[in-house]
């Protein structure tokens, strides 16, 4: 077994963490006991997911030479979706603030 972790595996682990953080954000919205606390409990996982999505996309691009597997497809989908989501959030906030 290889001692090093391949790029696809790193990206897949990040995509799993992104899904866990998004689940936590959804639970924070459902609980919504105090709006100020819920804002941070929702916002922090979303921002962390965006950062992990960018890092995961970087790793998946570096690992393009690796064979196409289910893990690679899942990692590409989740990481690129987070990058698009973060870009859309930044774009919409910029447009509506003007």
How would you describe this protein?
Helices cover 83% and strands 0% of the residues. The chain has helices at 7-31, 35-62, 70-97. Helix 1 (7-31) packs across helix 3 (70-97) and helix 2 packs across helix 3.
How are the elements arranged and paired?
Elements: H1 7-31, H2 35-62, H3 70-97
Task: Please describe the structure with a list of short key phrases separated by commas or semicolons.
3 helices, mainly alpha, about 85% helix, single chain, about 100 residues
Quick take:
This protein has helices spanning 7-31, 35-62, 70-97. By secondary structure, the protein is an all-alpha fold. The chain is globular and about 45 Å long.
SS field, number of helical segments: 3
Q: Specify the overall morphology.
A: globular
Query: How would you spell out the order of helices and strands?
Result: HHH
Number of strands: 0
- In what range is the share of β-strand residues? under 5%
* Helicity level: over 70%
Structural category: mainly alpha
Distance between the termini: 54 Å
Unreliable runs, pLDDT <50, ≥5 residues? none
- Rg over CA atoms, rounded to whole Å, is 16 Å
Please summarize the sheet with the most strands: none
């Amino acid at each position: 077994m290889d001692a090093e972790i391949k790029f696809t595996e790193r990206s897949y682990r990040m995509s799993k963490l992104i899904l866990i953080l998004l689940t936590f954000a959804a639970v924070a919205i459902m609980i919504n006991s105090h709006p100020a606390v819920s804002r941070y409990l929702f916002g922090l996982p979303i921002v962390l997911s965006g950062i992990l999505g960018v890092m995961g996309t970087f790793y998946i691009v570096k690992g393009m030479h690796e064979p196409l597997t289910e893990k690679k497809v899942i990692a590409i989908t989740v990481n690129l979706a987070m990058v698009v989501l973060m870009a859309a959030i930044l774009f919409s906030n910029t447009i509506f603030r003007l």
